[in-house]
Amino acid sequence: MKTNNKLMDRFGLAGKTALVTGGGSGIGKEITRIFAEAGATVMIAARKEDRLNEAAAEIAGDTGATIHVKRADLAERSVPDDLIKHAQKTMGRLDILVCNAAVDPVVKTTEYTDEQYDFVMDVNLRANCDMTKAAVPAMKEKGWGRIIYVSSLSSTKGFNKMNLGMYAASKAGLEGYARFAAAELGTYGITVNTLAPGAIHTQIIEPTFKEAGISDEQMEQIFQYHSSLCALNRWGQAEEMAGAVLLLASDAGSYITGSRLMADGGWDILGDNVG
């Protein structure tokens, strides 16, 4: 069977450049991998440089793509703008911006400190707005751009006993910002969308549960219960998010903007009573 070159062109990213924040692990790493497989030159950014270097070496070795690395702490106010400028200078331009990095400190909705609030909102909301602000002028000039925010099902659903209210608030704010950015930037050929993952099993899940004081036995019960709330009856994997992002980043998704793409295994349609 011959490869359908026209199909590959629609989903391909040959000649494109992309920046993926939080690209050293989990969903961000898998987005980076599929972008590299699609032919893009990618820069990944995160706070942990050793994890970035490991991810870049692994993906470059597997795909032959060029993967640039930049350590970046998005909680620092000057970093988002500097990161966009660095990506543009290093790769020559920036076509695709994927804002995936996020923090989720476990704290009750009425017991957060000023420092915790600022940290969550700075990383999960303000930094993404600032990166968008910095990236858009060059995208406007080219008449083409893709901006994708990785949000969360928690922006519209509550999770009892998970203590992620600040995280959910930041993601809800990000989705609101994305809708207005899409309306404003569409005339310039720039699409803006959000991906809303549901229960995705990444390496931060167990530490987050343990920080919330959840025992191993309770954790297993949560895994089983949340699986039962999904139409697919299981948790998702990080690599299952990557294909959705590729659609939004490529020409195959050129008429999709202002959308909230659910990637939750059918949780939203079945899981109205989350315990």
Q: Secondary structure elements and their pairing?
A:
Elements: H1 5-11, E1 17-21, H2 26-37, E2 41-46, H3 49-63, E3 67-71, H4 79-91, E4 96-99, H5 114-142, E5 145-150, H6 165-185, E6 190-197, E7 200-201, H7 205-211, H8 216-228, E8 236-237, H9 239-249, E9 260-263, H10 267-270
Parallel strand pairs: 1-2, 1-4, 2-3, 4-5, 5-6, 6-9, 7-8
Helix pairs in contact: 2-3, 2-9, 4-5, 5-6
What labels describe this entry?
alpha/beta; seven-stranded parallel sheet; two-stranded parallel sheet; 10 helices; 9 strands
The helix count comes to 10
Task: Report the count of strand segments.
Answer: 9
* Ends distance: 49 Å
Query: How helical, in percent, are the residues?
Result: 40-55%
H/E series: HEHEHEHEHEHEEHHEHEH
Instruction: Give the oligomer, counting copies of the same chain as homo and different chains as hetero.
Output: single chain
Note poorly predicted spans. none
Our estimate of the beta-strand percent is 15-25%
Describe the largest sheet. 7 strands, parallel
Rg value: 18 Å
Strand order of the largest sheet: 3-2-1-4-5-6-9
Shape: globular
Overall mean confidence score, pLDDT: 90
Task: Give the helix/strand class.
Answer: alpha/beta
